[in-house]
Design brief:
CATH topology of the largest domain: Dna Topoisomerase Vi A Subunit, Chain: A, domain 2
Strand order of the largest sheet: 1-2-3-4-5
Strand content: 15-25%
Distance between the termini: 95 Å
Largest sheet: 5 strands, antiparallel
Number of domains: 2
CATH architecture of the largest domain: 3-Layer(aba) Sandwich
Number of strands: 15
Shape: elongated
């Protein structure tokens, strides 16, 4: 793929793949909240006929290639490599497509987790009921089709959504912060001020400590594995939000990093540590895995195999003991026969 081919991909499809949907649209243009950070009024415009974008809040714009570079903080070659790995239906190598995507959506209801299928999905990802207080069950509609997913609300009121078949976001894109207290399961609730600033940590939870992960599932994995951690937990939700996360970290004296073991994650780790030299990188603890959730799933599998071996061990011992007893009886029988013959 080259830049001309990448720029032929509909911006609306790329934004939808990244979890961004328009708040208003017509035949000529679509308006979004900025995909690069939180804002209260949509200032990101997509010119549909020309397939270009402009962000009025920053005074910048460009093509699909420019969007990818700014969103991921990557080079042109990396942007082309990323796009080549996607399955964009509006990409045709020899034909410039003009494809209109209907992306109307609404959130129908938000409730405590009850859906057994979503609970099964958490279990498949190595997550137990310990994580239930930190998620919601979100029902939403896209293009007149109803869906449900696990939801995590970010600081700006947007939602990160996951189910076995869907990974995306609705409304504002922003970082998420939880306050973790193993004594108080309700401590995970994030209350944001009207100006978008984070709430003061819950009483009794150290405000100087924070752990940083990359995604929603990584955050839940951290909660699952940490039985005594008390402090804040931050999820980037997108590496494009690194700058906003770095600003948030200024108030913490203890910063623990659990980011992904890939190029983007390593780049985020390096930038945070360059800004805050006291930050500690713990990605070596799961160096053989891409991220924290993959590490947790591998750990659960090892535990399951170990438990199975332990369960089978008594049967083997019982069988061994029975064999020994039979041998003992046979030995005594032979000895008695020998004595009688003597």
């Amino acid at each position: 793929m080259n830049c001309k081919q990448l720029n032929s991909i509909a911006l609306e499809e790329v934004l939808a793949a990244l979890g961004h949907l328009p708040v208003k649209q017509n035949d000529k243009e679509a308006w979004y909240f900025s995909p690069f950070g939180a804002e209260k009024q949509a200032s990101f415009k997509v010119d549909r006929p020309n397939n270009v974008w402009y962000l009025f809040s920053e005074g910048v714009g460009g093509t699909t290639t420019d969007l990818m570079q700014k969103y991921f903080g990557m080079s042109v070659n990396d942007a082309l490599l990323w796009a080549s790995g996607q399955n964009f239906s509006s990409f045709q190598p020899q034909i410039k497509p003009i494809r209109k995507i209907t992306t109307e959506y609404r959130i129908d209801k938000v409730m405590d987790l009850q859906n057994v299928h979503l609970m099964d999905y958490l279990r498949e990802r190595g997550l137990s009921s310990k994580t239930y207080p930190y998620v919601k069950e979100v029902w939403f509609t896209i293009k007149d089709k109803s869906y449900y997913a696990l939801g995590s609300e970010n600081r700006s009121g947007g939602w990160e959504l996951r189910n076995p078949y869907y990974k995306g976001a609705l409304l504002n894109k922003d970082i998420s912060i939880w306050y973790i207290d193993p004594v108080d399961p309700n401590a995970g609730t994030q209350e944001a001020h009207q100006d978008g600033a984070p709430a003061v940590p819950h009483a009794g939870i150290p405000g100087c400590r924070i752990a940083v992960v990359e995604g929603f599932m990584d955050a839940l994995s951290f909660i699952e594995m940490q039985s005594s951690y008390r402090g804040a937990l931050l999820a980037l939700n997108s590496t494009a939000l690194l700058k906003r996360a770095i600003e948030e970290l200024a108030q913490y004296s203890e910063i623990n990093l659990f980011l992904d073991n890939d190029h983007a994650g390593e780049n985020c780790t390096a930038q945070i540590m360059a800004t805050y030299p006291h930050a500690k990188d713990y990605s070596y603890l799961y160096s053989s895995c891409k991220d924290l959730n993959e590490h947790l799933m591998a750990k659960k599998q090892r535990q399951a195999l170990s438990a199975q071996k332990t369960a089978n061990a008594p049967q083997k011992e019982a069988g061994s003991a029975e064999q020994k007893e039979n041998c003992k009886k046979e030995t005594n029988r032979i000895k008695k026969g020998v004595r009688r013959r003597m």
